[in-house]
Amino acid sequence: MSKRTNRRRHATAAIGAAILVTALCGSGQALALALDADPAQSSITPAGGSASPITGSLNVAVGQLPPATNTTFDVTQVALNSGGYAISLQSIANPGLGVLSPAGNFLIPTLFLSVDNGVTPIDVALANVTGVLFGRGPGCPYDYCLSSNFEIDSGAGGMLAVSLYAVPEPSTALLVALGLGGLAIQRRRMSR
Amino acid sequence: MNRRLGLLIVPILMAGTMGATVLDCGQMTEQAVVDQPGHVEPHTPGSGAPEEMPLSPAVVALLGANPDLNRISTIRTRKPGGPPPRAILILVPGFLGGATTFDPLARDLVDSMGGTLQVWAIDRRPNQLEDRVGSNHAAVGALLGACGQPGGNCSAIFQGAHFYFPDTDKAPLGDFPGPGDLDVNLNGAFDLQQPLVDGFGVSRVAIRFAQDDLRFLAHWGIDAYMRDWAMLIAEARSIVGENGLVLLGGHSQGTGWATIFAAYDLDPDPANVVAGHSLIDGLVLLEGGGVGPGSATKPTLAEYQAKVAALELPGGPDVFLSQFSFIPLAELATSSEVAAIAGFYQPDEPSLIQRTPTFGSGLVSILLAAPATNEAVVGLFLDDDFSPIGAFSASLGFSDNGPNTYSTFPGFAPFYLAGNGDGGALRNWRDFDDPVLPVCPPGQAPPVGPAGRGCAIIDNGPPSAPGAAPRMNGLEREVTAIVDFLRTQFGKANGFEWYFVDGRVSQDFSYGNDSSALVAQALAADPSDEGPLRITQNAAVDVPVLAIGGSNGLAPEIKSFDRYLDSIATPAADTEVVIIEGYAHLDVINARHNDTVPPIVDLVNRLIQRKLLASF
Fold this sequence. Notes:
The structure holds two protein chains of two kinds. Chain A is α+β, with helices and mostly antiparallel strands. In chain A, strands 1, 2, 3, 4, 5, 6, 7, 8, 9, 10 and 11 form an eleven-stranded antiparallel beta sheet that branches. The model of chain A is unreliable at 1-28 (pLDDT under 50). Chain A has helices at residues 3-24, 170-191, and strands at 31-37, 43-46, 52-53, 55-62, 71-82, 85-89, 99-100, 105-116, 121-137, 140-153, 159-168. By secondary structure, chain B is α/β, with parallel strands linked by helices. Helix content of chain B is 29%, strand content 13%. In chain B, strands 2-3-5-4-8-9-16-17 form an eight-stranded mixed beta sheet, sandwiched between helices. In chain B, strands 6-7 form a two-stranded antiparallel sheet. In chain B, helix 3 (103-113) links the parallel strand 4 (87-92) and strand 5 (117-123). Chain B starts with a helix and ends with a helix. The A-B interface holds A 70-72, 90-94, 97-99, 101, 107, 109-110, 114, 120-128, 153-155, 159 and B 17-18, 20-26, 82-83, 86, 111-116, 598-599, 601-602, 605-606, 608-609, 612-616. Strand 9 (121-137) of chain A pairs parallel with strand 1 (21-22) of chain B, so a sheet runs across the interface.
């Protein structure tokens, strides 16, 4: 193997890694995932009411992806809308700290949300919010997708059943695809 | 009045943080007293051990012939139903404090965390010695009589007060006929104290213990408390599991108790160490700097044992604190409870406790000479602008319907001495959120204020210089609703410890964070027993610590916590100190929209995540 070939392989890997890091990383070591709710597969259903699609986005900071061990899974931003409800994170420190297992299951022991129905904003603390972060395959045409189901007691509005399916934002998805593609090319060449 | 009744019936409505309504998630937050067996201290009545000490007639009269006083009592704030909590924060009250002092903070914390967290507030052992027949009669009777509502009946409050206090000779005032002005039949004649029927069906007046009634308190030292709390912590651990959190904290002197637990070796076997800090996941210190180095000279083992022996004997040294600021402690405690009930239900009526012997004469009558309403007398006693005692200080509002004389005495914080109300009116109280509370701008001398009557909000200036002792600083804030504070002083339990253990505990506290020399002497005498007090693990404490102070309190600067944090092994990355500007000593546990809540919630969240990373 020539030095030139080696340099090319290293360069390909470096570019792929750089793109992946650009796509995933925020400041520090956590990887920042920017996700959009898929309105076709996400909904909020009030008790006794009909489902309304969810639009909007959320950001998640993951300690390691894919996780070799349990890693941090912190919801850092939520801006979701559905049926007249606007859902965001409470304005407190670390409102969505959680963990992600190597199998892709996540748990947020307490998720601190603010729910605004246009009349009275309320703060809710949801215990034991769970879900999965899973990779490309059946049900996920992207490099990763997020799915979670939980309930919010909105007080006078009753219980809201939330079914959330989120996928990478288009720009993030493109960068991730490029990055993962670069890494895949490099790995294939290395294996030859 | 309706607001007050609502607070009593639906206490959850008092919760609220962050400017938005805090939702109760469909489950009422519950605050329940849990009484359970504690460590079996052998000298204590009910132990069944050969060392068990006899009961005095007064103790039998209050508690019956066979009481078991090895008990632990906690007030548990939790959301019933739902999944088990992931974290339990156990809190120790401060000097003279009872468990209900944590009610507002505990409720806010539990509401904020949606059931993930429970808060258990400890009532130390002596709380079971309090004769609360009168205050319970007053509180229940006022509620059932719709006292404060149109046509309501408040006579139970008079009866409860008169259960504790004899009639007094005061000038007629409002409902008080004088000269016999505490009598429930309002006939103007002196009466003996009002008997009430107790839980045994006996009609009697209040029982206040003398020192010789409670000689078994000689054996309620730190060791007994630490073993009690180890049992509580074990129970909490069994609820949250190994992957959950058990945090221990305290307010004011309670931080000393909590940090001593962390430093305590619970196993007297010299071959084993069961350090308190190994049983908990973190410490939360509220307006108290934790345990310090103790006295310069510490008792030897012989002196220690001699003191305990003396405390046991009739006529020996005091086993409980007999007075505070020259006021008999049980009377002060009783007054506090009566004043709170009267202030809660009849805020605008003439003060009941100013008619009692405790507040109607002596030192307190000088500080509280101006006739005041039931609500105002509590404000004038406890508000940070009127109280000369920093430990009894909250930002409750102000009173300006009369002259306020700026006063200073050596050893006390400056305070306003309230004069008689304008035009002979009772001194009244402006609540913490009154829009016209007088504010002193920077540079405005506190004695004057914008209307010549002083200031509710004073600028205490910059923090201390480097190397200097911490001092109050910053702009004061008014943050605590007096009605919330009043509500913490009566009911299911109370906010005052009537018989604060003195002789034994004071001796134990003199060792500060290290009783190793005492342990060494004990081992020299008996190699199998480390002795009566084993504070030997402070330097090994390595759990996360969150410390919160108020700039207008007793821990007003970050360096207020340096001494303790420097004495333990916890790395700096695992310590956090938060100073809340403008908060006084009691605000950190009583404030509406309490700024103490967010850092505690954040600590709990971060530590739960840390645990789950290892186990999820």
